[in-house]
Amino acid sequence: MENIKKYKKLIVIGLLLLIILLIITLNKSQKKDDDNQNTTNSINANIIKENITNEKIVGNEVSENVSIENVVNSTKDTTYKDKRSISSKIVYKKDATSVNNTNYNEKIKDITSPQLDINYSTKELTNKNIVVTMTSNECLQNLEGWKLSADKLILSKEYTSNSNERLYIKDLEGNITTINIIIDNIDKNLPILDITYSDTEFTNNDVMVKIKSNKQLNEFENWILSPNKLELTRKYDKNTNENLIIKDIAGNEVNINIVIDNIDKEKPEEAKIEDRLFLTKIINTRLTLEDKQSGINLNRTLYLIDSNENMTEDYSKYNSIDAECINISKTVENDGIYYIHILSVDNSGNEMKNTIKLIVDSIETTLNVDYSTTSWTNDNVTVNVTSNKEMQQLDGWNLSEKVFSKEYTSNCNESVNFTDYAGRQTTVTVSISNIDKQKPQEPVLSHTLFNTKSIDNTNNIDISFNTLIKDNDNGSGLNINKCKYLLNQSREKINSFNLANTFNNQNQKLYFTLKENSTYYLHILLVDNVGNESYTIHTIKNDTLNPIVTREYNLKDITNENVVVTIKSNETLQGKENWQVFDSGLTLRREYDKNISRTIETFYDLAGNPVSVDILISNIDKTAPNEATVNKTNFNTKKFNLVVHLSDNYSGIDLDNSKYVLDSNNISNYEHAKVFTNITETLNLEVTTDGTYYLHILSVDQAGNENDTIKEINVDSAKPEAKVMYSRSDITNENVSIIIKTNEAIKPVLGWDLSVDKKELRKTFNANINTNITIEDLFNNNNIIPLAINNIDKTFPKATIKYSTTTQTTDNVTVEIIANEIIRSTEGWTLSEDKLTLKKTFKNNATETVTIKDLAGNSITLSVIVANII
Fold first, then answer.
1. What is the rounded CA–CA span in Å between residue 346 and residue 324?
2. Which secondary-structure segment (H or E) carries 24?
3. What's the rounded Cα separation, in Å, for the pair 74 and 92?
4. Which element (helix H / strand E) includes 33?
5. Rounded distance between C-alpha atoms, residue 56 and residue 42, angstroms
6. Residue 212 phi, psi dihedral angles, 5° rounding
7. Quick check: 459 and 551 in contact, CB under 8 A?
8. How many H helices and E strands in the chain?
9. Cβ proximity of 613 and 551 under 8 Å
10. Cα–chain center distance at 775
């Protein structure tokens, strides 16, 4: 019994151990499955929602080989790569093909509804369509009216109007999620607007415009939006006519037109009158008022005529106006200046005040002229012109009450127009000839310089000269008793002429005794009849000595400039033709533009004493060097030599400044030029390509004159190219011409005709040839051109006649004409394929003359006689 109890205990313990072992094994298998899913991807199944009944898969399924231990079935949550989180029941079924019975097929069932994220394109009020987008965590089925994305995760639909609908969204397994789509923010109805104006009558105030709406509006630039967004207001300070586009909050637009034409803030035009000058004491004129906008308000427009320049604002004295254009009349007591004051008011209340000057002048003008003095004077003369009435101001004249005055500083004779307030002019003549403010004229001496020599041993000489004194033209005349003269050897001004001599008349001869070769000074005081004085000092000189001079040339070396000769003297020289005077006559200069041979020039001092100067100029060279010459301009190599020769006929070539350069530009530029070393020099030149070049040669002579010579250099190293043409290429018995056309000009070829442009050779041949011709261009490049003519045939063909029989016969006779070369066909005869035989069959006897021609046209005539047919 005890043994049985022990045995039962062992069985229980064994079962407990087996259960523990099984639990451990299941845990290890679960962990292994998780590791395989996350790391090795040994299970890579497409999990599809499906219903399972009695271990059979309903719906789509995917079988994968799964490594398991001893788990029969399990349920777990799995997250897969298609981002679907599902709760699946997984059944493992043994695979009969597995050797170890450890591989099973995995089949998955999806019983979870899709999770959706709903998005509206806008939740603000709008007049646009609204797009609703539903994003799912798993693939969805199509939904009628909705657009399903390619990955089946997004449904979208565009709503054109508000909506409230319930939708059932299914995933691929038919699991349903129910959602409500509510759209209540689409507004496509236009707002209804009402426009009001604060004032519709003419006004000079601002106009307030108010726009009322039945729907809330958006902000509008320059307008004020009310807090409830149902009113827009704006104040206009000037007229307008504008179209506005008003938008409600949803964006619906309404076009409205704002028209304001009753704002008038401009004053009326200034009042106008037709006449302003009246020659009687009755003021008759026409007053015109104008306002270009709202018009004149006649009830408030007034006028007043008085003598006050300033406009009074006491409008009780004013006259009313009953029309915009009226005649006005008023009688005044006195001549004078009056004013019409007008207050113009338009219908908008704008005021214009203006005052217009009126002149009443009914009296003729009389003027009286008076002079402050009519005697000779060296003071100013005042002229007074007195009028019998008030006059207008005159420029340059002072007006005091009715007297015009003006001070004249010089003589005059002029007409002056004075104008009264009526605009009438009265002319007076102002004549003044008694003003003398000028000094007497400077005396004129017939001689001041003498070269008289003493006739005795005292060295004294006697001289005399005429002295002409007079007052200025139209002056008061000289006071001869106050006109004095004094001769001494001092140039200092004399303070007193009490000891001086007095002139006797205006043209007086004066006598004096001087020392030889000495200088004196004649002091003369002239006084006219009004006291104007003239004091002059005149130099009286005796000179018998010849002047001493030096001669200078500004340039002594060879030059292409003018040469200036300067004569410097120890005393003043007289002027001389072609010579310029400097330093008050101490220097004379003359500029020579060409060489002169030895010339004697004589100069004189003021006393007439001569001095001679020898002048020779031979260093002027203004002639440019000769044109440079070159020995050759055409070359057939790119490296070549040419000889340049420089020459000058006068000062000679300056090699240091003479240069040359070769380039492709025909405009000279010597920046990189080379300098010549000899006047005849061989230049070693080289170019890279054939073509036309320019050799620029700058020849400079010793005087600096230049000559720019440009020589065109042509380089052609290529042989001429030719094209050969024949007048005909077919067999002919005529002559054949050969034409050779070249790409450039060539030299003549003996026996050939050369065209005018030297680019075509022509020659006619009467026989076949096979030869060469050498052509040569102008640069001596040559080319050998092969020529061949083999189509000339001037030889007559030869032929034999052959009869099919020559004995009598009743049959036809065939005749053959056999030629020694190809011949042409002949009418009535048959030409063989090799074109060497003509054949014809005669049925009757006949005689026929047959002409045969070869291809060149050479021909012979044969007689064919058939007489043996019976």
1. 11
2. helix 2-35
3. 8
4. helix 2-35
5. 24
6. -105, 140
7. no
8. 1, 66
9. yes
10. 56
DSSP result, 657-712:
G-EEEEES-SS---TTPEEPSSSEEEEEEE-SSSEEEEEEEEEEBTT--EEEEEEE
Q: Which of 87, 88, 89 is nearest to 72 (CA)?
A: 89
* Tokens encoding 203: 């006004």
CA 164 to CA 161: how far, in whole Å? 10
What pLDDT does residue 364 have? 86
Condensed to tens digits (0 to 9), the pLDDT of residues 286-345 reads: 999 999 888 999 999 999 999 899 998 888 889 999 899 999 999 988 888 899 999 999
Taking alpha carbons only, the member of 240, 204, 205 closest to residue 346 is 204
DSSP-assigned letter for residue 190: P
Show the 3-state SS of 588-618: EEEEECCCEEEEEEEEEECCCCEEEEEEEEC
Report DSSP state, residue 226.
Answer: P
**Nearest to 47, CA basis, from 74, 91, 93, 84:** 84
Closest CA to 515 of 487, 542, 477, 481: 542
Is residue 169 within 8 A of residue 193, CB to CB? The reply is no
Our measurement of the distance from residue 371's CA atom to the centroid of its chain's CA atoms, rounded to an integer in Å, reads: 70
User: Residues of 126-161 as b/e, b for ≥16 C-beta within 10 angstroms?
Assistant: bbeebebbbebbbbbeeeeebebeeebbbbebebee
**Exposure of 6 by Cβ count < 10 A (0-12 exposed, 13-18 middle, 19+ buried)?**
exposed
pTM of full prediction above 0.70 = no
CA pair distance 291, 321, nearest whole angstrom: 15
Q: Are 228 and 216 in contact (CB under 8 A)?
A: yes
**What distance in Å separates the CA atoms of residue 157 and residue 130, rounded to the nearest whole number?**
8
Q: Which residues contact 444 (CB under 8 A, 6 or more apart)?
A: 467, 468
- The arrangement of strands across the sheet holding 680-686 comes to 629-630, 639-645, 680-686
Element (H, E) at 28: helix 2-35
Q: What is the pLDDT of residues 251-278, one digit of tens each?
A: 999 999 999 998 998 999 999 999 888 8
Q: Which residue has the tokens 């046209």?
A: 857
For the record, the structure tokens of 213 come out as 């709406």
Q: Per residue in 534-557, is it b (16+ CB within 10 Å) or e — as a string?
A: bbbebebbbbeeebebeeeeeeee
Encode pLDDT of 539-556 as tens digits: 999 998 999 999 999 999
* Amino acid type, 769: I
CA-to-CA separations, 815 to 809, 810, 823, 825, 840, in angstroms, rounded = 14, 15, 16, 15, 5
Within a 13 Å sphere around the CA of 204, how many CA atoms are in the beta-carbon half? 14
Calpha distance 706→709 (Å, rounded):
10
Q: How far apart are CA 758 and CA 752, in angstroms?
A: 12
Cα dihedral 731, 733, 735, 741, rounded to 10, equals 0
Please report, for residues 164, 562, 606, 703, the alpha-carbon distance to residue 624 in angstroms, rounded to integers and kept in the order given. Answer: 109, 15, 44, 9
Backbone φ and ψ for 3, nearest 5 degrees, come out as -65, -40
For residues 598-611, average pLDDT: 93
pLDDT, tens only, 433-490: 999 999 999 999 999 988 888 887 788 998 999 999 999 988 999 999 999 999 999 9
Residue 573 and residue 567 in contact, taking contact as beta carbons nearer than 8 Å? yes
The answer, yes or no, to whether residue 45 has pLDDT greater than 80, is no
- pLDDT of the residue at 49: 31
**d(Cα 324, Cα 67) in Å, to the nearest integer?**
117
Distances (CA, A) of 342 to 113, 305, 717: 96, 9, 104
More confident residue, 608 or 625: 625
